[in-house]
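User: quick one - fold this with guanine bound?
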Amino acid sequence: TAPDTRGLRGEVVYFTGDPFLVGDGALTHHEDGLVVVRNGMITAVGPYREVADALPAGAPVDHHRDHLISAGFVDAHVHYSQTGAIASYGGRLMEWLEEHVYPEEQRLGDPAEARGAARFFVDELLRNGTTTALAFAATYPGSVDALLEETHRRGMRMIAGKVMMDRDAPPGLLDTAQRAYDDSRALLDRWQGRGRTGYAVTPRFAPSCTPAELEAAGALWKEHPDVHVHTHLSESADEVAQVRELFPERDGYLDVYDHHGLVGRRAVFAHGVHVTPAERDRLHAAGAALVHCPTSNLFLGSGLFDLEEAKDRRRPIPVGLGTDVGAGTSFSLLATMNEAYKVAALRSFPLPATRLFHLATLGGAEALDLADRIGTLTPGHEADVVVLDPRATPLLEFRTARAESLEEKLFVLATLGDDRAVKATYIAGRPQYERPAP
Ligand code: GUN
Ligand code: ZN
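Assistant: Sure. Structure tokens for the protein plus guanine:
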């Protein structure tokens, strides 16, 4: 078959480095730029006048005039099983899980319910310009199949896993260490490396897992070190205290995971709001990642993530941005950037838009150890793209007209933008979402 080649023309922005470490030079900008895509991969990028030659005669060009073209957003921590629990009132983490999350997740034991939830979730990702996510499913293996069948069908790069949990929740949501191991292994065999799909060994968090459950997770990762580990770490102060009581023999929360062989490259820890300096050292040395989930941390009153410490140049930790829906209050990485800025403001840490967009694109890809494939628009990367409209709403239009620099335009989008600012989302070079005409 003939190669499928197309050009995406517009104001192109992408990262070639980490602005937390190397400054603004990490961002490349072509005011009238062109991204050339062939068979799902980016083959050229640059100023339109210089790169147009790379397009074969007759290849279609989608001209997104006055729009920004960016790498698709990476949601580095989200629960697809909790869409129905978003905006559920009341309580901090532990009460909120019991009251709202555990009942909701039990619904996904029904395969038809899981398929419906998966379809809605994936539509919502695409409407928000999110092209890759690292997702929790529910305990039930069928809930993983439902999500990954949906994303595989649409050609998305997606990583998900079955929740492993064997204590402290309704019986219908629990497995056992043996079941968790067997079910996870079967899912991993089915999904890891199938198309663009990856598997994550997903122990819920230390309070939901007996030592035997964590041991099963560690054993599975040891046998399949190419997959991810995905869990929660030090989200709330009460949770940290509970882990101390449950695991008195361990030297803190991260050490519980470490002891079971769950800390290393491709281990992704959501939150880390209350990690200690020694735990940051350990995360850095291990190459493990944290995911900042500001809308969730504010919603549950969990605390203010210390991004400055996490990105300290002397021992940087890869950090992605997560919506953490259902504790998170939006699927939009733009809305999540807005809250990340405010959390940083409360800590007097400057967070310019360049850094915010990095967290949501290449930073997330780095946190998932996927930076060689996604997160930017340089040749050799997969063509997952979001097209953003800086004039999507009357207020955005009014404010963007006053923006005097790219940084300012991006900051206005990060502060005022949401799903309305997403004009189109491309997966592997093909439009999978286009905003309906008003
Ligand atoms: N910690 C363990 N499980 C969860 C969850 O579902 N949501 C959040 N926010 N934190 C958790
Ligand atoms: Zn979470």
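One thing worth noting: The first helix runs from residue 19 to 22.
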